[in-house]
Automatic annotation (TrEMBL):
<feature type="disulfide bond">
    <location>
        <begin position="591"/>
        <end position="650"/>
    </location>
</feature>
<keyword id="KW-1133">Transmembrane helix</keyword>
<feature type="disulfide bond">
    <location>
        <begin position="523"/>
        <end position="553"/>
    </location>
</feature>
<protein>
    <recommendedName>
        <fullName>Integrin beta</fullName>
    </recommendedName>
</protein>
<feature type="disulfide bond">
    <location>
        <begin position="479"/>
        <end position="484"/>
    </location>
</feature>
<keyword id="KW-0401">Integrin</keyword>
<keyword id="KW-1015">Disulfide bond</keyword>
<dbReference type="InterPro" id="IPR002369">
    <property type="entry name" value="Integrin_bsu_VWA"/>
</dbReference>
<dbReference type="InterPro" id="IPR014836">
    <property type="entry name" value="Integrin_bsu_cyt_dom"/>
</dbReference>
<feature type="disulfide bond">
    <location>
        <begin position="559"/>
        <end position="564"/>
    </location>
</feature>
<feature type="disulfide bond">
    <location>
        <begin position="585"/>
        <end position="594"/>
    </location>
</feature>
<keyword id="KW-0460">Magnesium</keyword>
<feature type="disulfide bond">
    <location>
        <begin position="481"/>
        <end position="515"/>
    </location>
</feature>
<feature type="disulfide bond">
    <location>
        <begin position="412"/>
        <end position="416"/>
    </location>
</feature>
<dbReference type="GO" id="GO:0007160">
    <property type="term" value="P:cell-matrix adhesion"/>
</dbReference>
<dbReference type="Pfam" id="PF23105">
    <property type="entry name" value="EGF_integrin"/>
</dbReference>
<dbReference type="InterPro" id="IPR036465">
    <property type="entry name" value="vWFA_dom_sf"/>
</dbReference>
């Protein structure tokens, strides 16, 4: 079992009333189940409550198993607990590689190279491990608009018309399960033909999801699982299916039919990146994105989201795919990321390691550049934040099948094996002993069940021992029947008060002693001996420096230690002035008016207000107010009194002749202006009508034809005998 070393910093002071509370209070609490008592509430501690753990199925780090511990049992309180496991990269660990290829028309030249890839690909894998297998699958996109033309002819041949070999449009198709036969791989891949679609993004996430969850049909083994994803385009994701009226979300399940086609391609939306990441992690599949240069940034961002993934840049015809896969595999296998699955609620797991920068706790354990045969060590800290029944979860490196199963239970109750006696003498025959303390019968409370609660509940009795916004008996005593019984202080001080909130040493210190040794400390306040005063009784009583005449601090403060403590606003040394106070103009205005009217009489409202013929205006405030007679008074104030009356200015009465003359003149002037305005308005209107008439006259045109009914008034008669001579 682990050894626990208690340090002073680790001990947390808290109120513990039962063995169960002791377990929850911290890793260094101990509980005595014996009926031994020292003083009012202190117990002897004999039993330390520490976690226990055991490891089963320890395995030799070899090519079969790369993780040391296979099954761990933890039984611990709800406090952090750390255990260690080791990981060692094994040489010759089996590898399964699934080649998932985009068969849209833009990948035509790439397909020709892949058809003869099997032999070289297996040869490259066998340089890493002799146990290697390869499989093949292809994808394009959903066969619905707007992704793919749904014209029957275009569905059967989505390629250009001059393309002789073209297979019908499809979403995802599994072609070849895992095999170590390169001839079979070449044969099946060579049977593949190019296809096509309409838009640029492809249905790659649909294909990755099916390749990850259809493990029995793909043929994934107990090995390092690599998925090589080759494309020259981006990908559709969750939500894009709405363009084709596909609203059903992806369910993350296998839907390959008898022809190994994705049967739900046109019925379910694309998966989200988060769903794909989750399924890849669950099935320990490490994706390698072999993409062209123009879409590399897209897949770089995808790599940041999906752990244990790599991105490589393909040449235009995929001729470099072998070297790309080799480099990606080396990077993936040397990067060890440890995480957990199926973590119960209220449980957290943090990791550290012996790798560079591995000393900082993280939600994942990470080691880079781990070579074959190198052993790394991870420290796993498990914390249960609540009491749990037996639970389990898995811990292991991403991309590997080996996992540690951690079975954990929390110890929230003590097992003291007490004799069952409901009327134990130690509990005043009103309860039974449980782990050294009394568990009282109904109606009784207290350390020894000595308190009969009657009509009050135990919660109400405890509340009576708690000050507002405070703890039970201020954490310095025990509540018995609603009354605080205070404990002696750890350093000998006396603790008292209704809620044990007071002690005799909490007063201010002077000369190294509470209250300077010149008074008595009472609940944080010094009661000084005669002749002394101050918060710590640190000065003699005197008011010599606080006096001005017969006044002490002008009556606006207290003289403490020969210094005025002024009322808020007034300033030292004598509390005479108040720079921030408002002037008292309104308060003393009536007094000033009284003095101005009756300088020789008694103004009852002006008692305490002085009047001087020659005022001193230094550091005073000038006020201007009108009296009841309309005269303006100009006077000064000095705090609470009117110091002097300076000037009285009374305005002359108004001239009635000027007022009456001005009124008649104004009315006449307004009338004349109104008549002029009316005249101007009528003139402008007539002028406008006349101009309109002239314009109409200019526009009128008369016909020049003669009226056949018209006869002139002149008749000409010619004399037939007149010859004109």
């Amino acid at each position: 079992d682990p050894q626990i070393t208690q340090s002073q910093e680790s001990c947390v002071k808290t109120v513990v009333r039962s063995c169960a509370e002791c377990i929850k209070s911290g890793p260094y609490c101990a509980w005595c189940k014996l009926l031994v008592k020292i003083g009012p509430i202190k117990y002897l501690y004999f039993i330390f409550l520490v976690p226990t753990w055991s490891t089963l199925h320890l395995s030799i780090l070899n090519f079969i198993c790369q993780v040391s511990a296979q099954l761990i049992f933890l039984d611990f309180p709800d406090q952090p607990w750390t255990f260690t496991f080791k990981f060692k990269r094994a040489e010759g660990y089996p590898v399964d590689l699934y080649y998932l290829m985009d068969l849209s028309y833009s990948m035509n030249d790439d397909l020709q190279n892949v058809k003869s890839l099997g032999k070289d690909l297996l040869k490259a894998l066998r340089q890493i491990t002799k146990q290697s297998r390869i499989g093949f699958g292809s994808f394009v996109d959903k066969v619905v608009l707007p992704y793919t033309s749904t014209n029957p002819k275009r569905v059967q041949k989505p390629c250009p018309d001059n393309e002789r070999f073209c297979q019908p449009a499809f979403g995802y198709k599994h072609v070849l399960s895992m095999t170590d036969n390169e001839i079979l791989f070449n044969k099946r891949v060579s049977e593949q033909a190019i296809s096509g679609n309409l838009d640029v993004p492809e249905g790659g996430l649909d294909a990755i999801m099916q390749a990850a969850v259809c493990g029995d049909k793909i043929g994934w083994g107990n090995s390092t699982r690599l998925l090589v994803f080759t494309t020259d385009a981006g990908f559709h994701m969750a939500g894009d299916g709405k363009l084709a009226a596909i609203l059903e979300p992806n369910d993350g399940r296998c839907h390959l039919d008898a022809k190994m086609l994705y049967s739900k391609s046109s019925e379910m939306d694309y998966p989200s990146v988060g769903q794909v990441m989750q399924k890849l992690v669950e099935n320990n599949i490490q994706p390698i994105f072999a993409v062209t240069k123009d879409v590399e940034p897209v897949y770089r961002r995808l790599k940041d989201i999906i752990p244990k993934s790599e991105v490589g840049v393909l040449t235009s015809d995929s001729s470099n795919v072998i070297s790309l896969i080799q480099n990606a595999y080396r990077n993936l296998s040397s990067n060890v990321i440890v995480t957990h699955d199926d973590l119960p609620d209220h449980v957290t797991v943090m990791y550290t390691s012996n790798c560079p920068n591995g000393d900082l706790p993280s939600i994942r354990g990470t080691c880079d550049n781990v070579g074959i045969g190198k052993e790394v060590e991870f420290n796993v800290t498990v914390t249960a934040h609540k009491c749990l029944n037996e639970q389990s979860f898995l811990i292991g490196p991403l991309g590997f099948r080996e996992k540690i199963r951690v079975n954990l239970t929390t110890r929230c109750e003590c097992e003291c094996d007490d004799r069952k006696d409901s009327n134990h003498q130690h509990c005043n025959s009103q309860g039974q002993v449980s782990c050294g303390t009394c568990s009282c019968n109904k109606g009784f409370v207290g350390q020894k069940c000595e308190c009969k609660i009657g009509d009050k509940s135990e919660a109400e009795l405890r509340q009576a021992c708690m000050p507002v916004n405070g703890s039970m008996c201020s954490g310095q005593g025990e509540c018995v029947c609603g009354v605080c019984h205070c404990s002696p202080g750890e350093d000998g001080r006396s603790i008292y008060g209704r809620f044990c909130e007071c002690d005799d040493r909490s007063c201010p210190l002077s000369r190294g002693q509470p209250c300077g040794g010149r008074g008595r400390c009472s609940c944080g306040t010094c009661n000084c001996n005669p002749g002394y005063e101050g918060d710590a009784c640190d000065c003699r009583k005197s008011d010599n420096r606080c006096r001005t005449g017969n006044k002490v601090c002008y009556g606006r403060g207290n003289c403490v230690c020969d210094v005025c403590n002024c009322t808020v606003g007034y300033t030292r040394p004598f509390c005479e002035t108040c720079p921030g106070c408002p002037a008292l103009c309104e308060r003393v205005a009536s007094c000033v008016e009284c003095h101005m009217d009756e300088r020789k009489g008694n103004c009852l409202v002006c008692q305490g207000v002085t009047y001087r013929e020659e005022p001193d205006l230094k550091e005073q405030r000038l006020c201007k107010r009108r009296g009841t007679d309309g005269c303006q008074m100009i006077y000064s104030t000095k705090q609470l009194q009117a110091d002097s009356v300076c000037i009285s200015e009374c305005p002359e009465p108004p001239d009635l002749r000027l007022i009456i003359g001005g009124t008649f003149s104004g009315v006449a002037l307004i009338g004349i202006l109104l008549l002029l305005a009316l005249k101007a308005f009528i003139h402008m209107r007539d002028l406008k009508e006349f101009r309109r008439f002239e314009n109409e006259q200019k526009k009128s045109k008369w016909s020049k034809a003669d009226n056949p009914l018209f006869k002139t008034a002149t008749t000409t008669v010619q004399n037939p005998n007149f010859g004109g001579d």
